[in-house]
């Protein structure tokens, strides 16, 4: 029987497959590191560094195309909750005294905001409004139906 020359693979014989291990490209470290342009192409801002955010290649940028400072918004503006006379007729069919708190409890307005009553609809009962703003047409209709308004 002929002796077979079998080589046993050992730990110190292991090495990666050819082409599996490559050095990483150190971009922008001069011509000697890896090729003339270091994988950045040729010429222009992107080669040298990077373009700034919002730059559109020389086209007028969006932030300059949009209008600047139009108008004014007062931080002290009062937002009134609006209720029409027609809604008061549904909520208070028999009339009575009405305040902003009562309207908030019934769900007609949100709590903590000033309320204004507008004149859409006809007053069918005598409403006594206290602590709410009232338009001129609403005031005339409520007083014609026998109600009263006090804007305290």
TrEMBL record:
GO terms for cellular component: cytosolic large ribosomal subunit. GO terms for biological process: translation. Residues 1-53 are annotated as: Disordered. Keywords: Ribonucleoprotein, Ribosomal protein, RNA-binding, rRNA-binding. Residues 82-149 form the Large ribosomal subunit protein uL15/eL18 domain. Pfam families: Ribosomal_L27A (PF00828). Gene3D superfamilies: 3.100.10.10. GO terms for molecular function: rRNA binding; structural constituent of ribosome. Residues 10-44 have a biased composition (Basic and acidic residues). NCBIfam families: rplO_bact. Part of the 50S ribosomal subunit. Binds to the 23S rRNA. Belongs to the universal ribosomal protein uL15 family. HAMAP family: Ribosomal_uL15 (MF_01341). This is Large ribosomal subunit protein uL15. It comes from Bifidobacterium pullorum subsp. saeculare DSM 6531 = LMG 14934. The gene is rplO.
């Amino acid at each position: 029987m002929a002796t077979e020359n079998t080589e046993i693979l050992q730990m110190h014989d292991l090495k990666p497959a050819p082409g599996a291990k490559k050095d990483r490209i150190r971009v922008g470290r001069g011509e000697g590191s890896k090729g003339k342009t270091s994988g950045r192409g040729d010429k222009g801002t992107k080669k040298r560094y990077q373009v700034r955010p919002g730059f559109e290649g020389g086209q007028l940028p969006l932030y300059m195309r949009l209008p600047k400072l139009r108008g004014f918004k007062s931080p002290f503006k009062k937002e009134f909750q609006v209720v029409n006379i027609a809604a008061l007729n549904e909520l208070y069919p028999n009339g009575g005294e009405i305040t902003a708190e009562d309207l908030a409890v019934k769900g007609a307005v949100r709590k903590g905001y000033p309320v204004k009553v507008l004149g859409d609809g006809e007053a069918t009962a005598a409403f006594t409004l206290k602590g709410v703003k009232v338009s001129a047409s609403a005031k005339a209709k409520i007083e014609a139906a026998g109600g009263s308004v006090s804007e305290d």
